[in-house]
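Repro:
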Amino acid sequence: MIKNGLHDLKQFLLGSKKRILFSIWLLVIIFICLMWVIGENVNDRTVSISTLFSGLSTFVFWCYRKKIASIIKRWNATPRTKFILIGSFGAVWVEFIFWVFEKIFGAVGVAASPNFILDLIATMPWYILMIVLLWRIETRYKYTFTELLLLGGVYELGADGFIGSFLGGTLSLGTIPPILFLIPLFVVVYSFMILPCSSLLEEEIDGIRQEKVTKRRINKYIYGLLPLIGLIPYFILGILTLI
């Protein structure tokens, strides 16, 4: 299983020239994360180790996805319900990883709240709406897993990169380039929210998409940005705090 997982990871990273370029970018980010691990800034250390654990969680899932899929098939629920619950669980797990390492290293402000319950109250509305809208885009257009992972990075870019910085009062023209540079890191963080639900329900999603008779007039990549709508309430909240 691990061997097959490593093979698939190699294909994901080196399967084309574009993927190789992205992999080089990712390696630079991983190097920066390793520097953060041995650095003195506890917030950077928390983010880097939490990101690596999020990526490891996705890799372990991928290695055992076939066994997990056989269990999911016996689950008596609609595909949409399964998709939303699996995606939401992934979000809870990632939030838990960041919260735990924040506590371990004594960091401040990495998680949404020092209290894990309040953290979930603050973040889960966004995550759940993101997963609901992700179901919508996947049942309308066919996306490869690579495309979905990249879209996840865009969602994280919007959430923690822009909205999180905006709410924290650190967003400026000068901070935008460094935020954009971290897109591979964002891909890794959201991978455990995006990949499990999309891969485990792939067959059902394909069937529903084929049954739909809808005119697809919107570019699928533009339509793939639909989940970002879930960030609007947080943006409005940020505006209200400035008034």
